[in-house]
Amino acid sequence: MSAPTSKPTVTEREARQVAEAAREQDWRKPSFAKELFLGRFRLDLIHPHPMPTDEATQRGEEFLAKLRDFVETKVDGALIEREARIPDEVMTGLKEIGALGMKIETKYGGLGLTQVYYNKALTLAGSASPAIGVLLSAHQSIGVPQPLKLFGTAEQKERFLPRCARTDISAFLLTEPDVGSDPARLAASAVPDGDDYVLDGVKLWTTNGVVADLLVVMARVRKSEGHKGGITAFVVETNSPGITVENRNAFMGLRGIENGVTRFHQVRVPAANRIGPEGAGLKIALTTLNTGRLSLPASCVAAGKWCLKIAREWSAAREQWGKPLAHHEAVGAKISFIAATTFALEAVTDLASQMADEDRNDIRIEGALAKLYASEMGWLMADELVQIRGGRGFETAESLRARGERAVPAEQILRDLRINRIFEGSTEIMHLLIAREAVDAHLSVAGDLIDPDKSLQDKAKAGANAGVFYAKWLPKLVAGQGQLPYSFGTFKHDVDLSPHLRYIERTSRKLARSTFYAMSRWQGRMETKQGFLSRIVDIGAELFAMSAACVRAEHLRTQGEHGREAYQLADAFCRQSRLRVEELFGRLWTNTDELDRKVVKGVMSGTYEWLEDGIVDPSGEGPWIADATPGPSERENVHRPIR
């Protein structure tokens, strides 16, 4: 028995096949966002706004009150930032109030909160300290509880979930030093040996890994007699012999997170700890992320609310040229953007979360859009706050406090939010993932036409199927409710939102026509047009956010909760969003994509290397990617369990 000593070598096509095999193939439930990309505005899928049950609301509100008291009295966000560590007593306190078990069923000792209230709790905790939000999210959104909830056996749930609910912190380990969003090259191995598997490999950026008691580890099982093989998921005890946390990583933001490098050397894991069958690891990971990604929008909602509060208070106190800062149009536009976008992000997050709770719709696209849109817009809001604060926005809270001013950590929130555009699927990867799902209907009927491995007979059959599909679909993209002047009239009150809903309907059809035209034009080369696909996805994200904002405004109006103000914010957001949409449509066909590719070739071939003259490079020595050869660790174990 020996561990592999080199990474699998795979072609681009093989890597795509691995990713394709891992995605959920069927659409058993309706999807609002999928329909949106197909030119069908199914408002009935999200309106009236879905609601939690009274029992779920009561349970959620009771915990939020307890959590609020805890973070207000026990959490010092400035201390966590200063010392780059969440104090052990804070982690212990979180365990005691049940924060580790928010999403775990009550029968396993958890709180049994809905996704809606789980995200509200993350918003609240993250506003006190983003590092605490990440700790709780990494543990429950992608750590041991969620995969076991979806794919675990009854015995596994009985063994592990009570521990996760009250005492044990968990982490999710997929990324490796040379493997990020391309899991086909995963090198960590799990070799069957009797009733065990033996794990070898190195995992990078293991959030919670430094303090975790339980791990979800993705490793490759080689195909052999009696073993299907493939990337497989395991629950691993962190105190198992052969596990070494070799480094606690430090970052530009989220300074308090316990993120590390974990090495496995001949680690024995019982076969009973395998989650699902061999080869199901990536599918488990992707399915877990469908709802797991919703924790990131929750953190962005927290950031937006705080940015709005600081922008309001500061812009009233600070005067320039004889009047408050907010009354200058250049600053006022930024405040309006922050307010309207915060409203929309909360609308998107609550809607997607409630849809996840109902389990009536397939939300794989909605969850991905929420993550993509919130991470991008959250960053922009924080950047605008720093600009509004001016020099004080660039100054640290500690420095502000030292010279006698309010310690506002504007620069910190900018640093803390930056990672959201990268982890749990970078913006670039999210664009490709969503684009693949958005064109699934087309590939289902016409994919064989552009597949070079398909026979002429298969292509002929696909051509016939495509003809039937498009004969029915294309005529429906010509006209719709968006062209009727009085449609969506129930959204017309003090402020009229019905024009925005008509715009969404018309634009959805335009988006579908643009996608079809591009597929007809580029066919098999469509997957290489990443700039085009990104803009298609961004348009869809704006339309989804506009839909959520309008539905939330109407919901708040019917509930008697700030309905007039909600309509005003929804109107402002939709008007801002429509400008972005029109710009994106213009850039679908008028852009520098082709020229950019030529410049990139020149850069990579050294043609423009002269442009780098006149500087010194302050980077240190060392390889670009650390060596991750399997073997025993030569470093001290910095694992620090919290007891």
UniProtKB/TrEMBL annotation:
Gene3D superfamilies, A to Z: Acyl-CoA dehydrogenase/oxidase, N-terminal domain, Butyryl-CoA Dehydrogenase, subunit A, domain 2, Butyryl-CoA Dehydrogenase, subunit A, domain 3
Swiss-Prot/TrEMBL keywords: FAD, Flavoprotein, Oxidoreductase
Residue ranges occupied by any Acyl-CoA dehydrogenase/oxidase N-terminal domain in the UniProt entry: 60-166
Listed cofactors: FAD
Compositional bias per record (Basic and acidic residues), positions renumbered to this chain: 10-24, 633-643
GO CC entries: cytoplasm
Any GO BP: fatty acid beta-oxidation using acyl-CoA dehydrogenase
Keyword Oxidoreductase attached: yes
Record GO terms (molecular function): acyl-CoA dehydrogenase activity; flavin adenine dinucleotide binding
Region (Disordered): 1-24, 619-643
Domain Acyl-CoA dehydrogenase/oxidase C-terminal residues, every copy: 279-437
Highest taxon of source: Bacteria
Domain Acyl-CoA oxidase/dehydrogenase middle: 171-267
Catalytic activity annotation: a 2,3-saturated acyl-CoA + A = a 2,3-dehydroacyl-CoA + AH2
Keyword Flavoprotein carried by entry: yes
Family affiliation: Belongs to the acyl-CoA dehydrogenase family.
Protein name: Acyl-CoA dehydrogenase
Organism: Streptomyces davaonensis (strain DSM 101723 / JCM 4913 / KCC S-0913 / 768)
